[in-house]
Amino acid sequence: RPTVKNYRSINLLLDQQKVTAEKHVMEMEGRQHQFTIEQVTKKIRRNNKAVSFTEFATSYADGIHKRGKLHVARSERSRLKNIMAYNMERPLYFHEINVAFLESFILYLKSKPIKGKKRAGISDKTINNHLLMIRTIFNKAIRQEIISRDIYPFGEDGKIQIKQANTLKIGLEEHEVKVLEELPLEEDTELWHARNAFLLSY
């Protein structure tokens, strides 16, 4: 009502929440035939809640370590350490990791002093490994319905794309590389990491 203080802002917020609710209803209708109002409400509340990337990523790395993949866990923890150093050790939330954040993080890695090296900056392959880890964590959080796909910062249409070199190694045809890229592998397994490292070496 016009008599209510800040009524325009309140009406705008209500309209936004209505659009969000309708979107979630359409998504759930596409996935299942029946659902309750409580399920829709829970989904909206979850998506409006700030979710800690720091905590989720730490749990992700700990899980790899518990499965006995010590080398992989050590590498992922090192990448997470770089992310937190860039964020000045402040708590980091999923919604903060957008295109601007990642572009700035890439520049940070490219100018990061490396001990024992005259030139600053890590290799493009190592930068890609950082982005792959962040993308993996986002995908895990989305699959677990902890965050909404709306905040996913990777892909086309102006989002971050993890580029691979165009040249092919001798012995592999282009279509064979494509098959390897699309091979369904369980994430975080040794095969999954080996496949990604192999592709990034091209």
Topology of helices and strands:
Blueprint: H1 7-31, H2 37-48, H3 53-66, H4 70-86, H5 99-111, H6 124-143, H7 174-182, H8 190-200
Helix pairs in contact: 1-2, 3-4
What features would you describe in this structure?
- The protein is globular and about 60 Å long.
- It is mostly helical.
- The chain is built from eight helices and no strands.
- The model is unreliable at 165-170 (pLDDT under 50).
- Helix 1 packs across helix 2 (37-48) and helix 3 (53-66) packs antiparallel against helix 4 (70-86).
- Distinct helical segment count: 8
Q: Which regions have little confidence, pLDDT < 50, spanning 5+ residues?
A: 165-170
- What's the story with the biggest beta sheet? none
Beta-strand segment tally: 0
The fraction of residues in strands falls at: under 5%
Order of helices and strands: HHHHHHHH
What are the defining features of this structure?
globular; mainly alpha; 202 residues
In short:
The protein has 202 residues and is an all-alpha fold. The chain has eight helices and no strands.
